[in-house]
Every structure is written in C-alpha cells, then in structure tokens.
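Posted in: Structural Biology > Protein-Ligand Complexes

Title: Requesting predicted complex, iron/sulfur cluster in pocket

I'd be grateful if someone could produce the 3D structure tokens for the following input. Sequence and ligand are given below.
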Amino acid sequence: MTKKSGKMDRNNIGKWFKSPGNMGQKYSLHALYFCTGCGIIEIPPTITTRWDAERFGVIPVATPRQANLFLITGYVSVKTLRYIIRSYEQMPEPKYTVGFGSCPINGGMYWDSYNTIKHLDKYIPVDGWIAGCMPRPEAVFVAVTHLWTLIDKGMATGYLKYREHYAKYRRNQEKILGELEWPPLFSKEEENEKSREKVAG
Amino acid sequence: MKNPGKKLQDELRSMFESISTEGDGENRMTVKCRKEAVITMLSFLKKTGFDHLALISCVDRLNDNVLELVYILSSYGGDVAMQKLNILLKTTIPRENPQFYTATEIFGNASPYERELHELYGILFRGHPRLTPLFLEREYDIPPFRKDFDTRKYVKDVFDQIPFVDDKKGRT
Ligand code: SF4
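-- Reply #1 --
Done. Output follows.
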C-alpha cells in the first residue's frame, strides 16, 4: 500500500478531517463473528495476538446489531445462506461484506455440490473478495486495507446496492430458500425501479 | 483374552447362520450377515461388550442394485485387546424402496445416524421415533448421496439458473 491509499499515518490526519465520517468507518470495522466453512479456522489467529487484527481497527463482535463488517469465511450451504441473509439484514448501515476464500466466489472446490450455493453475490451484495483456499491471515489485512481505499473513494456501496435492488435480491433468495419467514427489509419496489430506469433512459 | 477377534468369530459362526466374518488380524473385523439377523446381531454384540455404536454408514452399490449398511461398533467396557477391536457389521438392502428396522432400541445414539441416512439415501427406518429432516433445506427428487444423483445437472438446473443482480451503474 502506498501512502496515498490511506495508510494509517500521521501525515494523513489532515485528510481525515476532510471526511471524518469515512475515517470513522474505516478505522473501526467491527467484524461479525459468524463461522461458516473451513475459513473460520483462520479467524482466531487473525484476531488474537499472533496477527492482532486490532492494529487495523478490526475487532470481532458477537451480534450483527453491532457489526459493520461481514466476513463470509468459506462455503455457504443453503442452510447457512438463510442465516447469512438474516444476519446481514440486521447489521446497521453502512455495512461491508467480504467473501473470504474461493467458495463464496464461485463455489471453489464445491462447485458441483448439491447443497452449496455457488455465487454469494447473487443473494447479498459483496464489496470485496479474498481469493485462496484458504487465504492466510495476511490476506485479511490486505483486504481490510483495500476496503479502506474503497471506503475513501466511496466505492464500498454494497449496502446501497442492496437497498436499490432489494427486489431482485429477495427474488433470488426466495428462489433458493422458498418462502422466507421474515418480512422484507425494504419494500419490494421493482415497479419503481423500472419506472425510474425509464425516466433515466 | 489374547485374540478376541478369533474367539468372537467362532462364537458368531456358531450362533448365526450364513454369515461371513473376516478379520484383518489386527483391530478390524468385518461381519457380513443377512438383513434379518442385523438387529439380533447388534444386541448380541452389545451384550458381548461392544457397547459403543460409532457410526452407521451406507454405501450405494449401484452395480449390484443394493444399498450396503455398515454398523461400526467398538468397545469401551472390555479388556484392552477388545477395546482395540472395531467391528464392521455389514448388510445389504434393496435399492428400490429401501426400508429397514431402526437400531435405536439397542443403541440410542443410532437416532441421528438413521435420520442422516434417511435424508441422504432415502432409507426408511421403521420404528424410528423421529425421522424428521436433519441437514437439508431443500427437497431433492433423488436423495443426494445416491450414486445416480447427478450433482452437475442439479447445479446447472438450480444454482446456475439464479441470475446475477447486475448493476447498471457499474458499482462493485
Ligand atoms: S475456499 Fe477452500 S478453505 Fe475456504 S471454504 Fe472453500 S474449500 Fe474450505
């Protein structure tokens, strides 16, 4: 990472004050401690003394209500997807999702499994991916610093995308999971979306 | 008891008809028997000291058109030589409409294994107290662990049919 891309550095203090909101979000990422797949094995060393994620302002929290970073640590089975969606919808905005490992990207080694959803970003928006099977803890920090850059540039907007295309996401979710037992988070305003597109076009 | 496998083999042969036993000389003994004998055999083995049911698993033998059930037993109570011995009790049931009797009366911990097999291989265990879904969230035409379940086709038909949510503004 170069200085420009937002290293934690005193020289940057001036820049922080330009957008204190971004700074606050960048340096206090609260990762939801949600375990799925094999990748979760890498998370305990990442957050504890060996790699100490708190240097980067990342600490794990127990409930989605307090979290703003969602690490999906591995393959997502259909059953897990239900709880991923529930947890994701409970997180306060702004929230960031990072897919950790090859499995959430495209299925990884479970690409032809009967029970693993292949592309996580069909069901919830994902801001970044860490490739690898499984990625090392260092890769989490690379991802975090990249996420800082994205936040700085206003590109980590997965949660806005979720609002905007909620109807499509919900439709995909219901295709796999059947009726969802919780009410829609936003209105399923696909009609509005279409009309807006028409106006824009 | 120097070689519990040997003694047990003789004992089993004298008690049950048309079984085949085969030990690897060390710590594993395979017993194949007809399906009628399984429940009796399990309770006999439990009385003999093999008081721990480690696993019930299933092999889909597509070519022979049978499902092979494997009960793996080990011992906590016997002497050291016995504790080292694992018994693989195998039996076959037909593939079409597979049904079998539950072993929960003898080993209480058979319950989750049988639920699992019910779900993944479609075996109906009669007399099971609670044969409800255990892992799976979706319905499958063919139970997914059967060899004739085409996972690739299933993936193409289900997961690949879900469209990506594309974003016109080109945001990540
Ligand atoms: S990417 Fe590899 S390590 Fe991660 S969940 Fe998939 S198989 Fe496991």
